[in-house]
């Protein structure tokens, strides 16, 4: 049963979701939603029943002390809402949790039930996969959708992926069948440095989200964290000649592939983002803007002998990421 008494009428709401696990290499996607929740002080208004969707032997609950009283936090998916202030205010519904262990269709139906009740105009699902991308270059982010019309109007790729999928792919298809516009944004994380966190990939997802829904996101210390992360990986790679040589090979391949993108649309997007960040009237939020609800309850791995195959914007295949990214 969905109860939304604590949530006021929302303004042009967009739902942004991310799930820890198979679709979250380097914790980049879940880290992006956590950043939005933290910067805009999101207020949780709903949580899915953990008993319905999680195997507690796979995702175990945690015990903690609150003023000497032992309490338990159960693995689940929570929904919060934030209001973005500015000349044109709007709301974001943030969905953050763990990829469910079972009953995925019911899980997606429950998420869509919230979207319907809240009047969500579009669902954006964030994901991250392991790929052949060098850590020294900008993180590639693909925007994909199953809706041909949406792909055309928002300059996105229409997904052609076939193969094993995760909850990101299932939720996107559920949205499509329900008539809810849905987009997935995928960041490619270097497979030779896949351990979380990856602030550079998180930053890339947030930048792409800004462009997609035309908002300005306060980045806080994330740019500095991204620079520090790259510097740390640089130092680790320099200590291993085999890794350094492999990174150079990836750089050469990436630079060759990106030559056509060195001008035109790519430069235009960066310039638009620069102008948006300088414009004081651009949609943004000051600390505390979201507080309007009533009270409610880096290490390296060796280069692979065979490079993993992946399609830009596709879900990671089993060989790309066999270990869940918790």
Number of strands: 10
Portion in helices: 25-40%
> Helical segment tally?
9
Write down the overall mean pLDDT: 83
For the largest beta sheet, what order do the strands appear in spatially?
A: 2-5-6-1-7-10-8-9
Strand content is: 15-25%
Low-confidence stretches: 285-298, 304-326
Structure description:
By secondary structure, this protein is α/β, with parallel strands linked by helices. Helix content is 34%, strand content 20%. The protein has an 8-stranded mixed sheet with strand order 2-5-6-1-7-10-8-9, with helices on both faces. A two-stranded antiparallel ribbon has the order 3-4. α1 crosses α6. The longest helix has 18 residues. The C terminus is likely disordered.
Topology, pairings included?
Elements: E1 14-20, H1 28-39, E2 43-47, H2 50-53, E3 62-66, E4 69-73, E5 78-84, E6 90-98, H3 104-118, E7 122-131, E8 141-145, H4 148-153, E9 157-158, H5 167-177, E10 182-190, H6 199-213, H7 222-238, H8 241-258, H9 265-278
Parallel strand pairs: 1-6, 1-7, 7-10, 8-9
Antiparallel strand pairs: 2-5, 3-4, 5-6, 8-10
Helix pairs in contact: 1-6, 3-5, 6-7
């Amino acid at each position: 049963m969905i109860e939304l008494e604590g949530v006021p009428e929302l303004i042009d709401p967009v739902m942004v979701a991310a799930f820890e696990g198979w679709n979250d290499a380097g914790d980049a996607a879940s880290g992006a939603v956590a950043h939005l929740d933290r910067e805009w002080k999101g207020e949780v208004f709903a949580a899915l029943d953990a008993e319905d969707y999680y195997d507690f032997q796979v995702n175990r609950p945690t015990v903690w002390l609150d003023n000497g009283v032992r309490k338990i936090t159960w693995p689940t998916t929570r929904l919060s809402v934030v209001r973005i202030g500015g000349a044109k205010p709007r709301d974001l519904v943030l969905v953050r949790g763990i990829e469910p262990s079972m009953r995925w269709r019911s899980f997606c139906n429950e998420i869509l039930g919230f979207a319907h009740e809240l009047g969500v105009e579009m669902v954006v699902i964030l994901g991250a996969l392991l790929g052949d991308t060098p850590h020294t270059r900008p993180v590639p982010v693909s925007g994909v959708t199953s809706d041909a019309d949406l792909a055309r109007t928002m300059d996105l790729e229409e997904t052609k992926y076939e193969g094993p999928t995760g909850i990101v792919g299932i939720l996107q298809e559920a949205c499509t069948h329900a008539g809810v516009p849905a987009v997935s944004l995928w960041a490619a994380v270097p497979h030779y440095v896949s351990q979380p966190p990856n602030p550079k990939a998180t930053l890339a997802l947030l930048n792409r989200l800004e462009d997609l829904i035309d908002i300005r996101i306060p980045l806080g210390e994330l740019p500095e964290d991204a620079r520090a992360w790259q510097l740390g990986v640089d130092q680790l790679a320099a200590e291993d000649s085999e890794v350094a040589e492999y990174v150079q090979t990836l750089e050469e391949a990436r630079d060759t592939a990106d030559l056509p993108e060195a001008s035109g649309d790519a430069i235009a997007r960066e310039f638009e983002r620069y102008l948006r960040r300088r414009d004081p009237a651009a949609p943004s939020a000051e600390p505390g803007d979201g507080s309007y609800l009533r009270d409610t309850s880096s290490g390296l791995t060796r280069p692979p002998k065979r490079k993993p195959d992946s399609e830009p914007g596709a879900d990671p295949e089993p060989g790309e990421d066999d270990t869940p990214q918790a």
